[in-house]
Amino acid sequence: MNPLNHVAIIMDGNGRWGLKYKNSRNAGHKEGLKTVERIIKETIKNKIKFLTLYAFSTENWRRPKKEINYLFNLLENFLTNRLEEIHKQNIRIKILGYKKFSSKLNNLLNLAEKKTSKNNKLQINLALNYGSKLELINAFKKIKKSKSKINEKNLERYLQTKNLPDPDILIRTGNTKRLSNFLLWQLAYSEIFFEKKLWPVFTEKDYKKIINEYKHIKRNFGKV
Ligand code: FPP
After folding, report:
1. Would you say the CB of residue 190 lies under 6 angstroms from ligand 1?
2. DSSP states of 72-129 as a string?
3. Ligand 1 contact, 13 CB (< 6 A)
4. Any idea where the domains of the chain sit in the sequence?
5. pLDDT at position 217, please?
6. Neighbouring C-beta atoms of residue 181, cutoff 10 Å
7. Ligand 1: distance of its center to the CA of 15 in Å?
8. How many angstroms separate the CA atoms of 64 and 74, rounded?
9. 36 lines ligand 1 (CB under 6 A)
10. Hey, what CATH topology would domain 6-131+167-215 get?
11. Rounded to two decimals, what is the model's pTM?
12. CB 184 within 8 A of CB 132
């Protein structure tokens, strides 16, 4: 059976779910946050050490301002209300991406990272203002500046995922089959699961089914 250390998720479909059932995209984000909470619990239950969630991409700035503000408010409230509990559960929060938000949110994200930095039950990497192409370009720039050789080891040293194992599994909900500028380097050998369901209705049972399927896949990493 394959060991499972790291699950990455593209949580797609909030907008469509919200529009269909509540006549509002933002209602879909609110419901999507409930799924986030359920999936975190199930991740702990399955003793998985790393969970990376794509919450806001560098391209998501193209959305209407009202939706962007709603998303960041949701995140702000979530962290304000839940940080203590997250810390008590021995969960570590890490941000992937560039913290270029309001000073209130930047401070909150820094606080969450600092407060939980020694926790080791589960590490949640929240990809916020994250884009894989930008991450790679900046990593190459840093290699050039340091005058080191371009090789895998040196590149990985400058990625935002430094010290993280590559994801074993990528899940994308929402019935769309693309990577959307997410962890393009790190997903080179990940097992990819495209799920038809929209994120707000993705359940623990769906998650467990993927985990079980993954455990029985023959992973070759280029060998036979
Ligand atoms: C993609 O669905 C989802 C997002 C861009 C945001 C994800 C946010 C959450 C799950 C809730 C908040 C999470 C945290 C951690 C506070 P979409 O809006 O692109 O859906 P669509 O494809 O149906 O339009």
Report:
1. no
2. HHHHHHHHHHHHHHHHHTTEEEEEES---S-HHHHHHHHHHHHHTTT--SEEEEEEEE
3. yes
4. 6-131+167-215
5. 94
6. 16
7. 7
8. 16
9. yes
10. Undecaprenyl pyrophosphate synthetase (3.40.1180)
11. 0.97
12. yes
Contact 56, 101 (CB under 8 A): no
Residue in 2, 5, 46, 60 annotated catalytic:
60
| Separation CA 8–CA 187 (nearest Å) | 9
Residue 14 CA, ligand 1 centroid: distance in Å: 5
Nearest-CA residue for ligand 1 atom 8 is 55
- Does ligand 1 have an atom closer than 6 angstroms to the CB of 183? no
List the beta bridge partners of residue 53.
9, 126
Q: Hey, is 169 helix, strand or coil?
A: strand
10-residue stretch averages of pLDDT, the chain, 224 residues long? 96 98 98 98 98 96 96 97 98 96 96 98 98 97 95 96 97 98 98 98 98 93 86
- What does the block give as tokens for 15? 């907008």
| pLDDT score for 7 | 98
Q: Ligand 1: does its nearest atom lie under 6 Å from the Cβ of 127?
A: no
Question: Could you tell me the two tokens for 110?
Answer: 């820094």
Is 60 annotated in the active site? yes
